[in-house]
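Q: Here's a chain of 54 amino acids. Please give me its 3D structure as C-alpha cells.
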Amino acid sequence: MTVLTEISQTDVGPSTRPSELVQELHRITTELQAVDLTQCSDAELIDVAAGTER
C-alpha cells in the first residue's frame, strides 16, 4: 500500500500551474487507490490498463 502525504506550503506565493497539476494528480492517485474496481467490467479494466501503459 502506498501512502501519499500532502505537503502544505506556508509563506509561499501563489501556486504555479504545474504545482497545481501535481497536487491534483496526487489527490486523484489517492482516490484511485481507494476506489472499488470490482464495479468495472473486464473490458473497462483492460482499456484503463492499456491507457496507463501508454
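Q: Can you summarize the key feature?
A: The chain has one domain: 16-53.
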